[in-house]
Design a protein that fits this description.
Keywords: Signal. InterPro entries: Conjug_transposon_Tra0 (IPR018899). Residues 1-21 form the signal peptide. This is Conjugal transfer protein TraO. By secondary structure, this protein is mostly beta strands. Helices cover 11% and strands 61% of the residues. Strands 1-2-3-4-5-6-7-8 form an 8-stranded antiparallel barrel. The longest helix is centred in the N-terminal third of the chain and has 21 residues, at 2-22. The termini are far apart.
Length: 183
């Protein structure tokens, strides 16, 4: 219960800071979508970014992963997470100013579904893991290449630490996508 309260508090603080930041004016927001690789499968991520200035942004992202654990038995699983976080620009190309590198991180919470919710495989073998609520932390890097005033190419790399996952504690995501600046 304490971890749920912690993540709700973090999410509330992110929303409150973005609302108070919008009162200052001259700010930007963007949305993005990317697709790529997760461990043993594929993932798609949607993001909403609030940029209080040119050097940082708050991000809320949603990841959906479809994968299959390959071993003695192939076990399908899906992971769905919401990730509030904060990113800082650590590099910007000096001459062209259309290339930036951001580093950040935050928390995550979501749900993992193992073998479509069934603990029995078609062979009759039983799975020890179960579908459950998951939570944890992540670190991320984003490269952004400006294509125009409104669009940019995005390359994302995140490493997740799921505290209580039956699939595995560390979980990578690498993807490529587009970002659109709303205003």
């Amino acid at each position: 219960m304490r971890t749920k309260l912690f993540f709700i508090t973090v999410l509330f603080c992110l929303v409150a800071s973005s609302v108070s930041g919008q009162m200052r004016g001259n700010l930007a927001s963007s949305v993005g979508v990317s697709g790529g690789y997760v461990e043993d499968g594929y993932g798609i991520m949607g993001t909403f970014n609030f940029h209080p200035n040119r050097f940082q942004y708050f991000q809320i992202s949603v990841l959906a992963a479809i994968a299959e654990d390959k071993g003695a038995q192939n076990i399908p699983y899906n992971i769905f997470t919401i990730q509030p976080g904060l990113y800082y620009r650590v590099f910007m190309a000096p001459r062209r100013k259309n290339f930036s590198l951001f580093l950040g991180g935050g928390g995550l919470f979501g749900y993992e579904v193992i073998n479509n919710g069934s603990n029995e495989l078609p062979t009759g073998a039983l799975i020890n893991g179960k579908s459950q609520f998951i939570y944890g932390l992540y670190l991320g890097a984003e490269m952004e290449i400006g294509l125009s005033n409104d669009f940019s190419l995005l390359v994302k790399a995140n490493e997740y630490y799921h505290v209580n996952s039956d699939v595995g504690n560390f979980y990578p995501y690498v993807g490529v996508g587009l970002r659109y600046f709303l205003f």
